[in-house]
Write a structure and sequence with these properties.
The protein has 277 residues and is of the alpha/beta class. It is 30% helix and 32% strand. α5 packs parallel to α6. It binds flavin-adenine dinucleotide and FE2/S2 (inorganic) cluster.
Length: 277
């Protein structure tokens, strides 16, 4: 059982969870994730480790409420216990001195980009962080990310921050203006990661994405997280989650992610009827 030390809503629909898990905190590296079960009947869901503290033996997760499991998690309180937590899982992200790295984060990816930007900065890269939300009130961890970046660009669709629009159009302009970018790392919803990869394809800027297929065991045994990258079958849980965005078969990923949509909707409806009769 894993104690929840803090559970707070950081912006609407987005929550922070700090959990006591010293064995994970000791080994966690940027890009890795844990698999969490809220209770013994819950499904197992993968969530990225957004921060960790080895002295306190804690890890921090940022998650978005989308369906039954994340709603269950959002309904837990500080002092409650998670039934199970497994990790750290996945291959750590490649952290080298690449030159100038653009770290792009949208929705839960804003939290996930933080350890990445920190590690890349420590390696001597020039880090430009670009975080995206619909409006300013949905953007979080701005100060935290600013501290580990040389430049922070907050992008909103409604123009309530300095940069208005979507990540790809701003990225496209940066490329056409000749801004030096040696690598892009994009984390967030599948659509944003796909479009970011399409935007850099022509200029050949290496673009790494953290794929989010359905996962079950997280150990490479069940095959649920199968993705096609560069014409080969890979398992996102053990070969990834980071992959070259120019090589990903995005159509297949979208198709497989939607495989259980009816069951997910039924489950959510049942859960909401039970919780709010
Ligand atoms: C390696 C890995 C790391 C991840 N890290 C995080 C993380 O740090 N924080 C986080 O919030 N999520 C993360 N995810 C996604 C998270 O696992 C799913 O959001 C979660 O499993 C959804 O479970 P659910 O039962 O709440 O929703 P479901 O019932 O499974 O899904 C409900 C609906 O939401 C859609 N949906 C599911 N996931 C997403 C999503 N990520 N974005 C938009 N729509 C979605 C589904 O297609 C479906 O329509 C990660 C996924 C992977 C594979
Ligand atoms: S989640 Fe089972 S093989 Fe990856």
């Amino acid at each position: 059982m894993f104690k929840i030390l803090r559970r707070e809503q950081i912006v609407p629909n987005m929550h922070l969870l700090e959990v006591g898990a010293s064995f994970v905190a000791k080994k966690a590296l940027p890009g890795q994730f844990v698999i969490v079960m809220t209770d013994e009947k819950s499904e197992r869901i993968p969530l990225t480790i957004s921060d960790w503290n080895q002295e306190r033996g804690t890890i921090t997760i940022v998650f978005m409420e989308v369906g039954t499991s994340t709603k269950k998690l959002a309904n837990m309180k500080s002092g409650d216990y998670l039934y199970a937590l497994l990790g750290p899982l996945g291959m750590p992200s490649e952290i080298e001195n690449f030159g100038t790295v653009l770290c792009v984060g949208g929705c839960y990816g804003i939290g996930n980009i933080y350890p990445m930007a920190r590690a890349l900065k420590e390696k001597g890269n020039r880090v430009i962080s670009m975080i995206e939300g619909r409006s300013k009130f949905l953007i979080y961890w701005e100060d935290r990310i600013k501290k580990v970046s040389d430049e922070l660009m907050a992008v909103t669709r409604d123009g309530t921050t300095k940069y208005q629009g979507h990540v790809p159009e701003i990225l496209r302009k940066m490329i056409s203006d000749g801004k030096k970018i040696d690598r892009v790392v994009a984390i967030g919803c599948t659509f944003m990661m796909m479009i970011a990869s399409e935007t850099t394809r022509e200029s050949g800027i290496k673009t790494i994405v953290a794929l989010n297929p359905v996962m079950v065991d997280g150990t490479g045994m069940c095959g649920a997280c199968r993705v096609s990258v560069g014409g080969s079958t890979r398992f996102a849980c053990v070969d990834g989650p980071d992959f070259d965005g120019h090589q990903v078969d995005w159509e297949e990923l979208f198709f497989r992610r939607a495989a259980y949509i009816n069951e997910e909707l039924d489950s959510l409806q049942k859960y909401e009827c039970d919780v709010y009769p």
